[in-house]
Amino acid sequence: MEKILMKGNEAVAEAAMRAGCRLYFAYPITPQSELIEYMAKVMPKVGGTFLQAESEVAAINMVYGAAGSGKRVMTSSSSPGISLKQEGISYIAGAELPAVIVNVQRGGPGLGDIQPSQADYFQATKGGGHGDYRLIVLAPSSVQEFADMASEAFDLADKYRNPVLILADGMLGQMMEPVEFKPIMTQEEIDELGKQHTSWCICPNADGDAKHHHEINSLELDPSVLEKHVLQMYEKYAVIEKNEQRSEIFNVSDDNEVLCVAFGTASRIVKSAINELKKEGKSVGLVRPIRVWPYPYAAVAAAIGPKVKQVYVFELNTGQMLDDVKIAVCGKAPVNFWGKVGGIVFTPAEIQAKLEACF
User: Fold this and answer.
1) What are the φ and ψ backbone dihedral angles of 186, each rounded to 5 degrees?
2) For residue 222, what pLDDT is reported?
3) Do residues 30 and 127 share a domain?
4) Which of 17, 40, 46, 172 has the greatest CB tally within 10 Å of its CB?
């Protein structure tokens, strides 16, 4: 298939449309504004609905309503905008509805700046909203992967009736790379997907002799009923943790003296440093979590070879993934961290210098 040179923001929008997304609600914010601009152009052409909401709060509640209809629906924003969506995300998770959320992260806290960051890891993986719930969180490292994760996210959301968040960053949203897209889903295929949701969605459904609307709700005032619901959700999350861990293993071998862990675009910079160290005869491996929830603890643990004397975590934040890596390492080796914040991106030379100091 032909590859097209596109920005990450545009590529994930195109891929979402091709994956059957026909409902999109959002509010502009840098550095993801190209995504909303692209959706404004493409949704009407495929008979979909684009709506620029009056706020991020309005947008996520539109997603809540649309998800209840059993249709593929998406929203996107950047860090402060995602913060405003947290209450609605909790509602969607509590109601067990499928939806896709894209976060093109920027520097923070507060309004911060518009440069790339990975500082929303806690928010994404530990539950940024209220209550006991989980999001499935995908972390792309290339424009191609960003696009591929659009259809993957919708499939996971439908499979588990759970919101899925794609955790990108401003660098990935703005960079241009060649992308190969899947064929556009036909209306027949979209209709067939919708039929899978008739047992729970709000639309009229035939049950026995009568047709009725199912109730979509995250409010339950009876504590015993709410407890049962939350425990059932966590049974589902346990299945997700068992079946949906994904990671990339790069240059991992029994000769590794250092094991790196990095996700997203930060991992690309670490790979460049590792390749330079290979030329010097130094052996360094990398585990890249592709899904940061469920976290690939087993993959990180398995990559700690007999010669590893240091596990090094690199992130564009203050070390938000560090605790997850420590859980995976479980004391088998010392764990160190280095990162950049404020929208500043480290260079391959800086990573290389940190790793050389380990030998």
Assistant:
1) -75, 165
2) 95
3) yes
4) 172
Give CA–CA dist 171/139, Å, rounded: 13
The CA angle 23-124-86, to the nearest 5 degrees, is 60
Domain range spanning residue 45?
A: 4-194
Virtual CA dihedral for 128, 132, 133, 138, nearest 10 degrees?
50
Q: 226 in a domain, yes or no?
A: no
For residue 56, give the CATH number of its domain.
Answer: 3.40.50.970
- Whether residue 61 sits in one domain with residue 171: yes
* Domain-terminating residue out of 161, 179, 194: 194
Q: Tell me whether residue 25 is in a domain.
A: yes
34 three-state secondary structure? helix
CA atoms lying within 13 Å on the CB side of residue 281: 0
- Angle made by CA atoms 304, 305, 307, in degrees to the nearest 5: 120
Would you say the pTM of this structure is higher than 0.90?
A: yes
Residue 45: both structure tokens together = 């052409």
CATH number of the domain that residue 252 is part of: 3.40.50.920
pLDDT per residue over 333-344, tens digit each?
999 999 999 999
| Residue where the block lists tokens 């409010």 | 219
**What's the sign of the alpha-carbon dihedral 182, 186, 192, 197?**
positive
Q: Cα separation of 84 and 107, whole Å?
A: 16
201: tokens are 């969605």
* DSSP-H helix ranges across 74-142: 79-84, 86-94, 121-125
Among 149, 170, 194, give the residue marking a domain's end: 194
Tokens of residue 199, six digits: 């047992």
| Number of Cβ within a 10 Å radius of residue 122 | 14
**Residue pLDDT, tens place only, 316-335:** 999 999 999 999 999 999 99
Looking at the structure, tell me whether residues 164 and 285 fall in a common domain: no
Q: Are 275 and 286 in contact (CB under 8 A)?
A: no
Beta-ladder partners of 250 = 286
Q: pLDDT digits over 229-253, tens only?
A: 999 999 999 999 999 999 999 999 9
Residues 285 and 185 in one domain: no
